[in-house]
Amino acid sequence: MGIFGCSGALRALMLAFGLLWLAPAAQVSAGTLLSPGGAVLIKKSIEPFGRATAILSEGGLRDKWLGLQRRLADDLVQLALCEGDRDGCVSPAALKFLAVVDDAKVRDGRGRLGEVNRAVNLAIRPADDLVQYGAIDVWASPLMTFANGAGDCEDYAIAKFVALRLAGMAAEDLRIVIMHDTLRGEDHAVTAARLDDQWLTLDNRRMMMVADSDVRNYRSTFVIDEAGVRRYTDMPLVAEAALH
After folding, report:
1. 3-243 to CATH, choices 3.40.50.300, 3.10.620.30, 3.40.50.150, 3.40.50.720
2. Whole-angstrom distance, CA of residue 32 vs CA of residue 106
3. Bridge partners, residue 202, by sequence
4. Who contacts 74 (Cβ-Cβ below 8 Å, separation ≥6)?
5. pLDDT tens track of the chain, all 244 residues?
6. What ranges do the domains of the chain cover?
7. How would you classify the pairing of strands 174-181 and 218-225?
8. Edge-to-edge strands of the sheet including 39-41?
9. Nearest-CA neighbor of 220 among 53, 62, 68?
10. Which residue, 212, 207, 69, is CA-closest to 141?
11. Whether 91 contacts 40, CB under 8 Å
12. How buried is 195 (Cβ within 10 angstroms: 0-12 exposed, 13-18 middle, 19+ buried)?
């Protein structure tokens, strides 16, 4: 069955995803993951943790996100095909992922967030990238992660981000946040979802969702959404008058 055999809602969302995720692909530039590269400060923050952010114009983290966007576009095509013809779907991973989305769609508010957090946490077992892929810091798409049944923190976060988007959450209410664990001395990724003007974190390390204001022993470093990657910064916010 062709791509236009899928439901109108999923097809429209897939097209919207594709346009947003593929648009910046031509601007990929080299950089290292830990050096953020160029950044442009924005005037105020509506991001999780309420800190100012700066848009990354280059760097290794931005390159990883752009590379993932291309794989996400492929996933969305497969999901659309399977959503339109589940009996003929050739991807068990797509069917498993769609089941998570289906269960989330019938819930509202916090129940929707909790369902995705729980389902993805249970569907994936923790696995180190070096052990699983023979490489450091591989960002897998949801179908790649569900096919393997394993992943590390950013793989959980990516899968939850996409599942919630397909379940009907608005793009402006979803983020992937990279934080530094000040106790373990390592980086960690979570999904953040805004509900009733509060950001909740969906973490593979716990079933309970925690508000950003209640997160302890972590410092947020980067925030990601469909539009790109931003770095959290302690620099003063740009004065509104300076932007006119």
Report:
1. 3.10.620.30
2. 42
3. 191
4. 141
5. 332 233 444 444 444 444 444 444 333 333 333 334 455 444 445 899 999 999 988 888 999 999 999 999 999 999 999 999 999 999 999 999 999 999 999 999 999 999 999 999 999 999 988 888 888 889 999 999 999 999 999 999 999 999 999 999 999 999 999 999 999 999 999 999 999 999 999 999 999 999 999 999 999 999 999 889 999 997 544 433 333 3
6. 3-243
7. antiparallel
8. 39-41, 53-56, 228-232, 218-225, 174-181, 186-195, 198-202, 210-211
9. 53
10. 69
11. no
12. middle
Cα-to-chain-centroid distance, residue 17: 12
In contact, 183 and 217? CB cutoff 8 Å:
yes
Give me the residue label for tokens 């236009």.
4
Do strands 186-195 and 53-56 pair parallel, antiparallel, or not at all (unpaired)? unpaired
Nearest to 83 by CA among 93, 73, 72, 94: 94
User: 218 is written with which tokens?
Assistant: 């972590």
**Cβ distance 231 to 36 under 8 Å?**
yes
Residue 82: partners with Cβ closer than 8 Å, 6 or more residues away: 89, 91, 94, 95, 98
Question: Which distant-in-sequence residues (6+ apart) come within 8 Å of 230 by Cβ?
Answer: 39, 42, 47, 53, 54, 55, 56, 222, 223, 224
